[in-house]
Amino acid sequence: MAAPLATPLSLSQASRNMGAVLILSLVGVMFGGSVLTWRIVNVPAYLASPLHQDLWRAGHAHAALFLLLTLVLLPWIDAARGSEGLRWALRILISSASITFPLAFFLGAPRPATASPEPALGLLIPGAILLVTGLTILVWALLRGAPPSLGQGEAE
């Protein structure tokens, strides 16, 4: 007997639009990763700076991580109780980490000659605050007004 076909994920139009932008952004991160690989192979100054290598590698890794996190959370954002404005705020707060974290890493060592981290690395703090705020509000919106029996096993 054939397995039943999977039903498509039910997302709001806003989440589908945001998802499309995030997926295209992943293409950009992949392109950036290939440029990074090219630099490792072809730019001797890049290899001479471990700080530059580490921060740029971290920038690409965090960009991909937070883009994927936002994609995974889009259905949960749609399921959150609250207004559409709240859901848009959650989409923006959570996805902002995919911009602020990589930006901090890239600007933390913008040139291979950078010997110590630049002050732009401080962008990690507001990025983390935005992300934690978005995740906390999302949890609150998911749990708010939930039926008391939800998540509780039946007494036996």
Secondary structure elements and their pairing?
Layout: H1 13-42, H2 44-47, H3 50-79, H4 84-95, H5 97-108, H6 124-143
Helix pairs in contact: 1-3, 3-4, 3-5, 4-6, 5-6
Structure description:
With 156 residues, this protein is mostly helical. It has one domain. It is 69% helix and 0% strand. The protein is elongated and about 55 Å long. It starts with 12 loop residues before the first helix and ends in a 13-residue tail after the last helix. The mean pLDDT is 86.
Number of domains: 1
- Through-space gap between termini: 37 Å
Q: Strand count, sense and closure of the main sheet? A: none
List segments where confidence is low: pLDDT < 50 over at least 5 consecutive residues: none
Structural class: mainly alpha
Number of strand elements: 0
Beta-strand content bin? under 5%
Average pLDDT number? 86
Helix content: 55-70%
Nutshell version of this structure?
This protein has 156 residues and is an all-alpha fold.
Question: What labels would you give this structure?
Answer:
156 residues; mainly alpha; 6 helices; 0% strand; elongated
